[in-house]
Structure to design on (705 residues):
């Protein structure tokens, strides 16, 4: 069993999608405890990858690739987790690139790094209107809301979302993180965000601080 | 194919600049004019030259000699004939054969600069006289940097006796590197004999040294148009020992050469051709190389111009072209900023000087680590210059445009609006891209938190790490003593 978990971690960390799916399937076929598969296989693999990234041994595209595979494998074991009553509430992050902005690479990178740190990431995509974001925050009740904008013309939408959260009485239910090229700490303070990060790894640090 | 990049501090391979993008900066017509002009100077004006063995040999070979005027005139046929004797390729051997350099094979190798009397102390940041220990440290650092192909004497062993200083420098360098040493502080016969003897000891005998020359040398004319006795005697001693000997000219426009680039290069080319003719007359077939440092005078102060500009760059590029035309390997001035600190001026000068050698390549590029126009040496600058060189080598390696690299498949798969971030093609190919270990590339916030560092800080850290850990290939037992005995014998006279 430990050998199979090791195979899964290895496949995940080397972005071997076929290998990771096969290893997850093999563990499920062998009736492995789904919680163990999640914690000792998938989550530990991502966390080890995060450590490798910090040491400069792997690069961001590799982390993003592994995070995609993590998501697929996680979906495979999720029904068993729920059926066994083992699905624990993990810290949820909802992320979106704001309305009018089609640049979502930065957000994708942050999402991938968040997954390596064990957050449950829900990515709403790009060009997402404030109403849609509010609706998801209300339904899903995430701990963190990440708002991304690349353009000086769309960065104002971050403020619009925060204002709408206030209007809907949701502002104190979620921590809002903002990011993107035109975003600075001053801007984050000005619009009343809870945090700002200039890079993907720093976003993870701040998310961890805000939820600890 | 790209080599995989390793940061192994124990350098077991050498980074070289391939000649993949050679551009001729002079038209064939202008190059021929420069050649003809130099030959006319050698024929009609001649060279001041008094060392009897050279004068006698040249007289026997067809040179016109005016002994009263201390002048030798070189007919064009003599120059052409002697030039043809020089080999187009030779070996610069290293104590570790894996670090041997094949010169004349279409690759440029970077050396440490030299020879500087002052060092910027890495701990205090102040300028002070350099010592034998400093020379050992710099040599050991350069031994670990794959971008450094061979050594000059970056700093002088300033705390050793004047008359045997070059031998102390040879000794401490052999102790601290397994790479090739190009001795450039010996300018007299006696030290040349001592240095060649030390090289024989390390090589394991005269024949072995001839087969694998662990040391080379070059000698300089005095601009305009003169050769002193000492350098010629040293040249002869090294050639006798089978060591490659370069011929160097360092004219200064407006001072020891005309103000014009064409006039400056005429002086340089004439002096170098005269030196090669002397060497090939005395030792036919001796391996030699074309070395030029044609620079300019600062018009205000009369000092060496530290503002290396377009004239120096152009002159460097012409000299490598001239050497390629002659079929003789070349050494060309590269880096060696006039700035006092690794700053904007240093970055501009060294990046331009380096990039020029991608297109006008030489065999030996000299050199890394000096500041203030060769008057101060810096360990940080050595690491920074090695980084510039690494970038240039990566560029000069070129980029594949084969089917896989054209990436039609991945582009079709991702399609409009997607991304390549986690695409298998990205993961398979991204490591081919160069990544700087020293450029400041973090966020503003991280940079402020770290105290606003510059790449100099990173270079200092790397230099200290290497000096703290790198152990060069040791000399066989007893050799250090044998080298010391050569020095003692010469000190006793």
């Amino acid at each position: 069993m430990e050998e199979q978990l090791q195979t899964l971690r290895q496949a995940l960390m080397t972005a071997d999608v076929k290998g990771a799916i096969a290893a997850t399937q093999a563990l499920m076929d062998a009736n492995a405890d789904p919680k163990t598969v999640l914690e000792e296989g998938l989550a530990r693999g991502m966390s080890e990858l995060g450590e490798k990234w910090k040491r400069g041994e792997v690069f961001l595209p590799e982390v993003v690739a592994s995070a995609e595979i993590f998501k697929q494998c996680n979906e495979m074991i999720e029904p068993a987790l729920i059926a066994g009553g083992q699905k624990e509430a993990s810290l949820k992050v909802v992320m979106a690139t704001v309305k009018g902005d089609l640049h979502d690479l930065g957000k994708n990178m942050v999402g991938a790094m968040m997954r390596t740190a064990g957050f449950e990431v829900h990515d709403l995509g790009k060009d997402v209107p404030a109403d849609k974001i509010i609706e998801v925050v209300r339904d899903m009740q995430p701990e963190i809301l990440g708002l991304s904008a690349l353009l000086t013309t769309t960065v104002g939408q971050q403020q619009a979302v925060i204002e709408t959260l206030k209007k809907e009485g949701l502002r104190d239910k979620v921590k809002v993180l903002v990011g993107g090229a035109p975003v600075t700490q001053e801007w984050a303070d000005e619009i009343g965000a809870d945090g700002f990060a200039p890079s993907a790894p720093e976003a993870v640090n701040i998310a961890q601080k805000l939820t600890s | 194919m790209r080599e995989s990049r390793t940061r192994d501090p124990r350098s077991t391979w050498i980074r070289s600049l391939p000649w993949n993008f050679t551009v001729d900066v002079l038209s064939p017509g202008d190059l021929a004019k420069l050649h003809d002009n130099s030959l006319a100077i050698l024929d009609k004006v001649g060279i001041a030259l008094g060392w009897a063995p050279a004068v006698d040999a040249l007289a026997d070979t067809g040179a016109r000699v005016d002994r009263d005027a201390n002048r030798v005139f070189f007919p064009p046929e003599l120059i052409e004939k002697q030039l043809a004797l020089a080999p187009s390729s030779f070996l610069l051997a290293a104590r570790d054969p894996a670090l041997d350099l094949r010169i004349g094979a279409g690759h440029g190798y970077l050396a440490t600069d030299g020879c500087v009397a002052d060092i910027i102390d890495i701990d205090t940041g102040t300028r002070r006289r350099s010592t034998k220990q400093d020379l050992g440290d710099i040599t050991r650092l350069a031994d670990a940097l794959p971008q450094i192909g061979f050594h000059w004497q970056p700093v002088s062993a300033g705390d050793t006796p004047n008359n045997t200083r070059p031998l102390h420098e040879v000794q401490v360098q052999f102790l601290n590197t397994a790479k090739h040493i190009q001795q450039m502080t010996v300018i007299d016969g006696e030290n040349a004999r001592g240095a060649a003897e030390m090289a024989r000891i390390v090589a394991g005998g005269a024949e072995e040294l001839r087969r694998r020359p662990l040391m080379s040398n070059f000698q300089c004319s005095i601009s305009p148009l003169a050769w002193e006795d000492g350098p010629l005697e040293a040249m002869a001693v090294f050639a006798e020992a089978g060591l490659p000997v370069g011929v160097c000219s360092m004219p200064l426009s407006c001072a020891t050469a005309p103000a014009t680039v064409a006039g400056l290069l005429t002086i340089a080319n004439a002096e170098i051709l005269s030196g090669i003719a002397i060497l090939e007359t005395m030792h036919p077939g001796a391996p030699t190389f074309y070395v030029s440092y044609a620079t300019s005078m600062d018009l205000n102060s009369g000092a060496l111009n530290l503002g290396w500009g377009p004239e120096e760059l152009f002159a460097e590029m012409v000299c490598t072209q001239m050497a390629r035309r002659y079929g003789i390997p070349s050494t060309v001035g590269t880096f060696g900023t006039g700035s006092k600190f690794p700053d904007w001026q240093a970055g501009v000068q060294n990046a331009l000087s380096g990039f020029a050698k991608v297109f006008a390549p030489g065999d030996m590029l000299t050199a890394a680590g000096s500041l203030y126009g060769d008057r101060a040496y810096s360990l940080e600058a050595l690491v920074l210059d090695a980084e510039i060189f690494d970038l240039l080598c990566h560029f000069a390696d070129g980029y594949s445009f084969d089917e896989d690299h054209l990436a039609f498949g991945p582009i079709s798969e991702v399609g409009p609006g997607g991304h390549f971030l986690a695409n298998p093609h990205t993961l398979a190919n991204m490591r081919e891209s160069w990544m700087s270990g020293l450029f400041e590339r973090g966020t503003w916030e991280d940079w402020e938190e770290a105290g606003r560092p510059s790449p100099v800080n990173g270079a200092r850290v790397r230099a200290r790490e290497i000096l703290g850990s790198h152990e060069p290939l040791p000399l066989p037992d007893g050799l250090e003593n044998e080298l010391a005995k050569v020095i003692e014998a010469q000190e006793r006279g």
About this structure: The radius of gyration of chain A is 18 Å. Chain A has two domains: 2-83, 92-211. The domain at 2-83 of chain A is CATH 1.10.1240.10 (Methyltransferase, Methionine Synthase (B12-binding Domains); Chain A, domain 1). The first strand of chain A starts at residue 92 and ends at 97.
